[in-house]
Design a protein that fits this description.
Layout (H helix, E strand, L loop, with lengths): L8 E4 L1 E6 L4 E8 L6 E4 L1 E8 L2 E8 L10 E6 L2 E6 L5 E13 L2 E10 L8 E3 L1 H4 L3 E4 L22
Parallel strand pairs: 1-12, 3-11, 4-10
Antiparallel strand pairs: 2-3, 2-9, 4-11, 5-6, 6-7, 8-9, 9-10
Protein name: Retropepsin-like aspartic endopeptidase domain-containing protein
Organism: Microbacterium invictum
Pfam family, one: Zn_protease
Length: 159
């Protein structure tokens, strides 16, 4: 049996996550061990070039049915990948690197930009991020801090 260099953090199947680099104080996320990569609901996605490097501009509304705390984000493009959704549909998605805080622990996660309007969660945390020391208990929820109510509108950039 091999020993981990860090202790595992117990997480529920849904948790509140912070995205401090882009000014999102809280976003409700589903922790999904069936998904490889994390995903976030993004809209008005626009690719552009900055000094010879591929970048993307997009908007995030962290609260469902509300535009409170909406942010516009600019980030370097990490990759463009073909991703199969839970419904079996394959699409190309832009991938960006985001620093997230889950249960008080910082994790750098590869995050695909996707239209998650029809989904119950604005963000999905996949295995790639969870493999950094999280154990998901599918019978529990919100083991970390609870988010306060929506705050105000902000615009932030990354990079």
């Amino acid at each position: 049996m091999s020993e981990s260099t860090h202790s595992n953090t117990l997480a529920g199947w849904r948790e509140w996550v912070q995205l401090p680099d882009i000014g999102v104080p809280w976003i409700k996320a589903k922790l999904d061990t069936g998904a490889q990569t994390s995903s976030i609901h993004a809209y008005d996605v626009e690719s552009f070039d900055r000094d010879g490097t591929a970048w993307v501009r997009f908007r995030i509304r962290p609260w469902q049915r509300s535009d409170a705390d909406e942010v516009e984000v600019e980030s370097p493009v990490l990759d463009v990948r073909r991703v199969r959704s839970s419904s079996g549909h394959v699409e190309e998605r832009v991938v960006v690197l985001m620093r997230l805080i889950l249960l008080g622990r910082e994790v750098a996660a590869e995050v695909t930009l996707s239209n998650r309007d029809a989904m119950g969660f604005r963000m999905l945390i996949g295995r790639e991020a969870l493999s950094r020391g999280f154990v998901v208990d599918s019978a529990r929820s919100f083991l970390g801090d609870r988010a306060p109510r929506p705050m105000r509108r902000r615009n932030r950039g990354v990079g």
